[in-house]
Amino acid sequence: MAAKLILGKEISDSIYAELRGRIAALKARGITPGLAVVLVGEDPASQTYVRMKGKKCEELGMRSVQVLLPEGTTQAELLARVAELNSDPSIHGFLVQLPLPEHIDEKAVINAIDPSKDVDCFHPYNVGRMLIGEPDFLPATPAGVQQMIIRSGIETRGKRVVVVGRSNIVGKPMAAMMVQKGAGADATVSVVHSRSEGLAEISRSADILIVAVGKPRFVTADMVKEGAVVIDVGTNRVDDSSVKDGSRLVGDVDFDAVSRKASYITPVPKGVGPMTICMLMANTVRAAERRAGE
Asked: Do 216 and 238 contact (CB within 8 A), yes or no?
C-alpha cells in the first residue's frame, strides 16, 4: 500500500488561518507584527528565501522589512544594523539570512541578536530554553516538522524516533524537541550521523524517521521499517535531462521506493518546505504578542 502524503501546503494553510485571527487581534490594539530579514550579498537561493518571506508577510497583513547589504559589508557594519533592529519597536522579530560571507563571524552576529526578537531561534539563550522544555520560540524547520506530525494525527508518545543528521538547524533541535514532554513529543529518540556505526540498522528501528542530511536519496527502502512515518527534510537539486531546466529537486529519501513501505511520507517538493516560512511567521506573531504583554 502506498504511503499517505503529508503535504506542507495543506497544513501551513490551516496554521495561516489561525495566525490571521491573532494578527487581527493585535492590529485591533494598534500593533502590526513586524519581521525584518537582513541579507548580505547576492546569493540567489538566499534572495529567493528573502522574497518569499516578504511576500508571505504581505499576504498576512504583517510588516515586512528587507535590509539588503553588499557582499563587502564588514562585520562591524552588520553588527550596527543588528543593533538598530534590536532597538526598533516596530520590528518584533528579525533574522540574518545564512550563510554569511566568509569574512563575517556568524556566531558573533547570532549572539548579537536580541533573544526576544530571535525568531529563527538560533541564539544560545533560545536554544537553551528549548532544551529545558521552556521555549520562547522553536526553530522554524523542526517546529514545522512537529506540527506536520501533530496535525496528521500521528502518535509520538512512547514511539521510537530516529533523526538522521545532527546539524544545529534541524537535527539537534529536532531531537531535543521530540524528547520533551507534551504533544508531538514524549518519544524515545536516537540521532544518527556520518560517524554512526550501524546507521541502517538504527534507522530500521524507527517508528518515525526524520531525515536531514543534505544527500540526495540517502535513505533507501532497506533502511526503513514497514509502516514507518518518514519525514524528509532534505532539498537537493540533481541533474535531470527529462525536465526543461535540466535539473529537479529531490529529498534525502528515495521517495519512490520508500513510499511503498512507509505509512506516511513527506514529498519533496511540497512537503516540509512550506512549513519553515509558516513557523517563522508564527514566531513573529508570538514575539509581537509577547511584546504586547500577552
From this structure: yes
Question: What DSSP designation does 178 have?
Answer: H
Respond yes or no on whether the N-terminal peptide bond of residue 269 is cis (omega within 30° of 0).
Answer: yes
Read off the pLDDT of residues 90-120 as tens digits, 9 standing for 90 and up: 999 999 999 999 999 999 999 999 999 999 9
Query: Is 103 strand, coil or helix?
Result: coil
DSSP 139: -
The model's pTM is 0.96
Nearest 10 degrees: Cα torsion 104, 279, 90, 112: -30
Strands annotated E in 78-207: 93-96, 160-164, 188-192
Intra-chain end-to-end CA distance of the chain, in Å? 47
- How far apart CA 280 and CA 138 sit, in angstroms, is 9
1: cell is 500500500
Q: How far, in whole angstroms, is CA 86 from its chain's centroid?
A: 23
3-state secondary structure of 247: strand
**pLDDT by residue (tens digit) across 34-51?**
999 999 999 998 999 999
Helix (H, G, I), strand (E, B) or coil at 138: coil
- The residues carrying an active-site annotation are 53, 97, 120
- Grid coordinates representing 22 are 491573532
Across the strands, what pairs with 229? 208, 264
